[in-house]
Specification:
seven-stranded mixed beta sheet; alpha/beta; two-stranded antiparallel sheet; globular; Rossmann fold
């Protein structure tokens, strides 16, 4: 799929997603705090209200559970590539591709209130567009083992970018809203989140298009 370059509304972005007889999987990659979830939900709403049922299938539901991360002494690094069930994500992504429209495919979600994934948080069934959003959709195995198959399972993938200052502000707000102290939030952002952002940024050239938010629209390159 090809989008026109320039500043496009969400409606114009949605109209750029092709109409297919089978399910179309659109990836939205990018660093933490870039606004991937917001864009995915806006696209879902736009598509669904125009008669094209769509669903958001986030990567976040594949976080390893906290007791597993504690056992691996990795809880402080939660959110880094090896703290996800990459194999489970790839397997379910393949299932989403191969299952006929109309047959149910359960998909986990992540509950920020309890900081844990919830099994079958959404069930994909009649939707012909699945918007798969997450940080690591474009990585190679050289960058993080286990993620390389993801890109080949997506029909298209966009990269949502944002200035580092905006990422930092949003991530600090996210962590303090989640119960961390300002010092704890700063340590998480500076010690893990922004390092992840640098890793993810190296993958942006593998995206079909790079988007940057401009007000309620997005600049596309």
């Amino acid at each position: 799929m090809t989008l026109a370059s320039g500043v496009l509304s969400v409606g114009e972005l949605a109209r750029g997603i092709p109409v297919c007889r089978e399910r179309f999987l659109l990836g939205i990659a990018g660093p933490p705090g870039a606004g991937k979830s917001t864009l995915a939900q806006r696209l879902r709403t736009e598509l669904s209200t125009s008669g094209r049922p769509a669903v958001v299938a986030p990567m976040d539901g594949y976080h390893l559970r906290n007791h597993v991360l504690r056992a691996r002494n990795a809880l402080a690094r939660k959110g880094e590539p090896d703290t996800f069930d990459a194999a489970g994500f790839v397997a379910d992504l393949r299932l989403l591709r191969e299952t006929p429209v109309g047959a149910p495919v359960p998909w986990p979600l992540f509950d920020r209130a309890i900081d844990e994934p919830t099994d079958a948080g959404v069930v994909v069934c009649d939707e012909r567009v699945a918007i798969v959003e997450g940080n690591y959709l474009l990585l190679t195995d050289a960058e993080a083992p286990g993620w390389a198959e993801v890109r080949g399972l997506l029909d298209a993938c966009w990269y949502l970018d944002a200035p580092r200052s905006i990422l930092t502000e949003r991530l600090l707000d996210r962590h303090t809203s989640g119960g961390r102290t300002p010092a704890q939030a700063s340590a998480k952002v500076m010690g893990s989140d922004l390092r992840n952002a640098d890793l993810i940024a190296a993958s942006r050239n593998r995206a079909d298009h790079v988007l940057t938010a401009e007000g309620h629209s997005y600049r596309v390159t």
